[in-house]
Amino acid sequence: MLSTTELLLATKWFGIATIGFFLLTTLGFILKWGFRFRLVGVTGFMGVLTAGLFGLSLGLFNRVEIPGSVPYTLVYDNGATQTVIAVSPTISESELAATMEQAAGDLFSLGRLGGDSQLTIRIRTIIHPEKGVSEPLYLGEVKRSLSQREDENIDIKIFPETLAKLESYQSENLES
User: Fold this and answer.
1) DSSP 62
2) Helix (H) or strand (E) holding 24
3) d(CA 88, CA 169)
4) Angle at CA 117, nearest 5°, toward 113 and 121?
5) Taking phi first (over 0 means left), then psi (-120 to 50 degrees means alpha), and beta for anything else, what does residue 114 get?
6) In this structure, are residues 164 and 137 in contact, taking their beta carbons and an 8 Å threshold?
7) How is residue 146 annotated by DSSP?
8) Up-side HSE of residue 83: CA atoms within 13 Å toward CB?
9) Radius of gyration of the chain (CA)
10) At what angle do helices 36-59 and 4-30 cross, to 10 degrees?
């Protein structure tokens, strides 16, 4: 992925090329060249490309990687204040905490709707205590601000009773 600096440099060169095509188009109209209207199209397209590159250079940001986090799957997202992610049933408590923090950063978006000022992310896994039986376990939840990217007050809650149930399930399956 290109960095912001590289995109700004490309924007500068595309801007110079756009100005060059504009001058060439102006010269084409003055000298009544037959392909002057094609030059209008090329100049307009170069302007669109320049504006697009400039917009990309403003909008890109680097995703923060939280050490110890594990991959998760987005299960539900209402586009506003509620999301649910799923993690592997082999997750440990330290990995769970890191993954919750990672999800809080990844799922933040200023474009989310809703009257509530908090985004709630619930974390779940599915265990199979018996053959043919699936049981969802909600391991915790994260609450973070919808208006601040760098939220200092992220509220991470791990549910100890369900985590204990998961650890019991993990130990039973390791013995089997």
Assistant:
1) P
2) helix 4-30
3) 12
4) 80
5) left
6) no
7) S
8) 26
9) 26
10) 160
Q: Considering Cα of 20, then 56, then 52, then 148, what sign does the dihedral take?
A: negative
Instruction: Please name the amino acid found at residue 54.
Output: F
Distances (CA, A) of 16 to 21, 49, 51: 9, 12, 12
> In which order are the strands placed within the sheet that holds 118-127?
73-77, 82-86, 118-127, 135-145, 155-158
Instruction: Give the pLDDT of the chain (176 residues) as one tens digit per residue.
Output: 677 788 889 999 999 999 999 999 999 999 999 999 999 999 999 999 999 999 888 876 666 788 888 999 999 888 788 899 999 888 888 898 999 888 888 887 777 776 667 888 999 999 888 888 888 889 999 998 887 777 778 888 989 898 888 888 888 876 65
Distance CA(41)–CA(154), nearest Å, equals 50
Buried b / exposed e across 4-33, counting CB within 10 Å, b at 16+?
Answer: eeebeebbeebbeebeebbeebeebeeeee
CA 69 to chain centre: 15
Sign of torsion, CA 76 82 90 167?
negative
